[in-house]
Amino acid sequence: MHNYTLSQIAELLSAELDGDGALEISTIATLANARSGHIAFLANKKYRSQLAETQASAVILSAADAEYYQGNKLIVANPYVCYAKLAQLLDTTPRSASQGIHPTAVIHPDATVANTAAIAANAVIEAGAVIGDNAQIGANCFIGENTKIGNGTKLWANVSVYHDVEIGSDCLFQSSSVIGSDGFGYANDKGQWIKIPQLGRVIIGDKVEIGAGTTVDRGAIDDTIIHSNVIIDNQCQIAHNVEIGSGTAIAGCTVVAGSTTIGKNCQIAGLVGINGHIDICDGVILTGMSMVTKAISEPGVYSSGLPHSSNKEWRRNIAHLRNLPEMKVRLKALETLTKSLNVDN
């Protein structure tokens, strides 16, 4: 692990240094758990009280919080963004594949693997596949026929990428993600399901991150498209012919049904369900457990998930919900009566 002086870190973050620039920093920690040689950060004022007790050697914070801490500090406009940049510098995550090609990897002679790419044990790369410079293909990965993996893209162990998929540069795929599996396409003939071959591809841009266990289905005829700088969390389902605009973030366990288009710079929380064949415009925020059943044409925050309550309160509310049809009839009758009384007066 390489240590950095506080002056070096300040230069990297374009931060204002207040303290000992020669101090060496070995890692990042939380305010509560930091020790000597650690740097912490304050990005949420609700943790401001921890500044007085932290054992960190230095703290990254905003100008508004600087007065509450008397130790070594780096003053920045956005502490959370600076934490992210510093975490990249101090990152100790290993490679998913060592340099070179492991002797147990199975690579078809018609595949093209860059000299600087790394292929781990038991990976399988099929005919016509192209693996770019400095790509890392983890253990037990499968790369299908005619699939292209861009420069610097990293696949952790057990990632499956089907045939005819195109993946850009500097992407990251966590373990057990599946890219290019068949979309859920069937026709019903008198009770018998007739499978529709999924003939489209998956096209993924640059700097896309896909979480563990997430599945991105190939298109039925046209392609499933994920544009650059999209991040998708674990256990998500992206169905066939979905298109996701650049800069959009999707949290865990969200499901997007087929042929839906999601715009740029959207934020979709966890456990959201999005119906198929609808369009969601740029700049939409969907809070957790929302169910989206129709198109959204205006940017903003949308919600539909109900917050929890006590079991007793929930049962009472459900009982009222069951009576809504009767209550509607009674309310309509009352409105009619009120109107007639007003007319008579």
TrEMBL record:
Domain of life, source organism = Bacteria
Q: Under what name is this protein listed?
A: UDP-3-O-acylglucosamine N-acyltransferase
Q: Which reaction does it catalyse?
A: a UDP-3-O-[(3R)-3-hydroxyacyl]-alpha-D-glucosamine + a (3R)-hydroxyacyl-[ACP] = a UDP-2-N,3-O-bis[(3R)-3-hydroxyacyl]-alpha-D-glucosamine + holo-[ACP] + H(+)
MF term (GO), any: N-acyltransferase activity
What is this enzyme's class at the first EC digit?
transferase
Q: Name one GO cellular component term.
A: membrane
Q: Which CDD domains match?
A: LbH_LpxD
UniProt organism field: Pseudoalteromonas prydzensis
Cite the source lineage. Bacteria, Pseudomonadati, Pseudomonadota, Gammaproteobacteria, Alteromonadales
Task: List the EC numbers from the record.
Answer: 2.3.1.191
GO:BP terms for this protein? Answer: lipid A biosynthetic process
Q: Name one Pfam family in it.
A: LpxD
Subunit structure of this chain's protein: Homotrimer.
Role noted for this protein: Catalyzes the N-acylation of UDP-3-O-acylglucosamine using 3-hydroxyacyl-ACP as the acyl donor. Is involved in the biosynthesis of lipid A, a phosphorylated glycolipid that anchors the lipopolysaccharide to the outer membrane of the cell.
Cite the active-site annotation: 240
Q: Which UniProt keywords apply?
A: Acyltransferase, Lipid A biosynthesis, Lipid biosynthesis, Lipid metabolism, Repeat, Transferase
Is Acyltransferase one of the keywords UniProt gives this record?
yes
Per the similarity annotation, which family is this? Belongs to the transferase hexapeptide repeat family. LpxD subfamily.
What sequence ranges are listed for the domain UDP-3-O-[3-hydroxymyristoyl] glucosamine N-acyltransferase non-repeat region?
A: 23-89
The annotated pathway is: Bacterial outer membrane biogenesis; LPS lipid A biosynthesis
Q: Which gene encodes it?
A: lpxD
